[in-house]
């Protein structure tokens, strides 16, 4: 919808789907998935040059087709996350950073204490900070208070595809947040993405659900539709849930009465 | 000795960062590369003038796929 733009730090987007760039079967499938998804923002990582892994030319491949959101994935200390963000700013000439500060390599859960500290430092350093965080309304409020441009609570642990494990928390975060809420991590299929939007999220960030699906291009299209559909449903206002049936057809004029 | 991406190595006297990057096979003109020395980012414009000093810990990074 052209009249339903989504803003972060003054930049407007018409798609509310952010797409990760990792794990696709090949580069063409990634490019086709990006097109099919309609996503305007893609995430990238920052790694040592000798940790190549066949990813040469990602920027050439994208050719400016998407707004780049570098991450600090894998960082476990404030120092490493801040330096990674600064390196990303130099490499990509962007002040935007998806701040990830992992507290545990097994669960990949955010270390919220260090996350708030790093977020505050990066905001002071001029960054537009989008922190990946737990689905905790208080943590989200702290992050907004230190100046983050959005908050990105997890639906479920990274890569699990378990969907939104605590819809009540996500709905509460959305109802109370003073900054945009982007559901990040845990999406498994299209209905999860639609639910995130129905709960009030401003956008959804996902990667594995598309890249590791059987047909990534088709799933990317499904995610684009799901996010748009969920957004429309949110704006339209769903009916309240009832415990008893209520006929939708007229109850008068039945034959045989 | 200097450390480049966690690995210790020797360096020639007067070696500058641009030359070091060249040795590492990095396309100096390309986008998507960044360098830090001892925890501080060295802007691209200063690569040619920043000489490498004994004990420097250098990080050379690039943009890769990510989620």
UniProtKB/TrEMBL annotation, chain A:
<dbReference type="InterPro" id="IPR033983">
    <property type="entry name" value="Thiazole_synthase_ThiG"/>
</dbReference>
<dbReference type="InterPro" id="IPR008867">
    <property type="entry name" value="ThiG"/>
</dbReference>
<comment type="pathway">
    <text>Cofactor biosynthesis; thiamine diphosphate biosynthesis.</text>
</comment>
<comment type="subunit">
    <text>Homotetramer. Forms heterodimers with either ThiH or ThiS.</text>
</comment>
<keyword id="KW-0963">Cytoplasm</keyword>
<feature type="binding site">
    <location>
        <position position="159"/>
    </location>
    <ligand>
        <name>1-deoxy-D-xylulose 5-phosphate</name>
    </ligand>
</feature>
<feature type="active site" description="Schiff-base intermediate with DXP">
    <location>
        <position position="98"/>
    </location>
</feature>
<feature type="domain" description="Thiazole synthase ThiG">
    <location>
        <begin position="8"/>
        <end position="250"/>
    </location>
</feature>
<dbReference type="InterPro" id="IPR013785">
    <property type="entry name" value="Aldolase_TIM"/>
</dbReference>
<comment type="function">
    <text>Catalyzes the rearrangement of 1-deoxy-D-xylulose 5-phosphate (DXP) to produce the thiazole phosphate moiety of thiamine. Sulfur is provided by the thiocarboxylate moiety of the carrier protein ThiS. In vitro, sulfur can be provided by H(2)S.</text>
</comment>
<keyword id="KW-0704">Schiff base</keyword>
<feature type="binding site">
    <location>
        <begin position="185"/>
        <end position="186"/>
    </location>
    <ligand>
        <name>1-deoxy-D-xylulose 5-phosphate</name>
    </ligand>
</feature>
<feature type="binding site">
    <location>
        <begin position="207"/>
        <end position="208"/>
    </location>
    <ligand>
        <name>1-deoxy-D-xylulose 5-phosphate</name>
    </ligand>
</feature>
<dbReference type="GO" id="GO:1990107">
    <property type="term" value="F:thiazole synthase activity"/>
</dbReference>
<keyword id="KW-0784">Thiamine biosynthesis</keyword>
<dbReference type="GO" id="GO:0005737">
    <property type="term" value="C:cytoplasm"/>
</dbReference>
<dbReference type="GO" id="GO:0009229">
    <property type="term" value="P:thiamine diphosphate biosynthetic process"/>
</dbReference>
<protein>
    <recommendedName>
        <fullName>Thiazole synthase</fullName>
        <ecNumber>2.8.1.10</ecNumber>
    </recommendedName>
</protein>
<keyword id="KW-0808">Transferase</keyword>
<dbReference type="Pfam" id="PF05690">
    <property type="entry name" value="ThiG"/>
</dbReference>
<comment type="similarity">
    <text>Belongs to the ThiG family.</text>
</comment>
Automatic annotation (TrEMBL), chain B:
<dbReference type="InterPro" id="IPR003749">
    <property type="entry name" value="ThiS/MoaD-like"/>
</dbReference>
<dbReference type="InterPro" id="IPR016155">
    <property type="entry name" value="Mopterin_synth/thiamin_S_b"/>
</dbReference>
<dbReference type="InterPro" id="IPR012675">
    <property type="entry name" value="Beta-grasp_dom_sf"/>
</dbReference>
<dbReference type="InterPro" id="IPR010035">
    <property type="entry name" value="Thi_S"/>
</dbReference>
<dbReference type="Pfam" id="PF02597">
    <property type="entry name" value="ThiS"/>
</dbReference>
<protein>
    <submittedName>
        <fullName>Sulfur carrier protein</fullName>
    </submittedName>
</protein>
């Amino acid at each position: 919808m052209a009249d339903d733009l989504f803003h972060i730090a003054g930049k407007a987007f018409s798609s509310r789907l952010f797409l990760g760039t990792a794990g696709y079967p090949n580069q063409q499938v990634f490019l086709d998935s990006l097109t099919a998804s309609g996503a305007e923002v893609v995430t990238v990582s920052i790694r040592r040059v000798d940790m190549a892994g066949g990813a040469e030319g990602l920027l050439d491949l994208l050719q400016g087709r998407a707004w780049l959101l570098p991450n600090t994935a894998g960082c476990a200390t404030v120092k490493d996350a801040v330096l990674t963000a600064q390196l990303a700013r130099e490499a990509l000439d962007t002040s935007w950073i998806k701040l990830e500060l992992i507290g545990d390599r097994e669960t990949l859960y955010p270390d919220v204490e260090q996350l708030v500290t790093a977020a505050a430092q990066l905001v002071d350093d001029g960054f537009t900070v989008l922190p990946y965080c737990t689905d905790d309304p208080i943590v989200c409020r702290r992050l907004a208070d230190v100046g983050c441009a959005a908050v990105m609570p997890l639906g479920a642990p990274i890569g699990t595809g378990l969907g939104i494990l605590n819809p009540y928390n996500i709905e509460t975060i959305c109802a109370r947040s003073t900054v945009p809420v982007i559901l990040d991590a845990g999406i498994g299929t299209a209905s999860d993405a639609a639910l995130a939007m129905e709960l009030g999220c401003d956008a959804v960030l996902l990667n594995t659900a598309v890249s590791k699906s059987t047909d990534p291009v088709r799933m990317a299209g499904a995610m684009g539709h799901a996010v748009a559909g969920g957004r429309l449903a949110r704006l339209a206002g769903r009916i309240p849930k009832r415990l008893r049936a209520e006929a939708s057809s007229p109850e008068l004029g039945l034959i045989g009465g | 000795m200097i450390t480049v991406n966690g690995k210790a190595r020797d360096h020639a006297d007067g070696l500058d960062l641009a030359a070091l990057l060249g040795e590492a096979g990095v396309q100096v003109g390309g986008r998507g590369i960044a360098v830090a020395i001892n925890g501080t980012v060295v802007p691209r414009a200063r690569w040619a003038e920043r000489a490498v000093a004994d004990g420097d810990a250098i990080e050379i990074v690039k943009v890769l796929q990510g989620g």
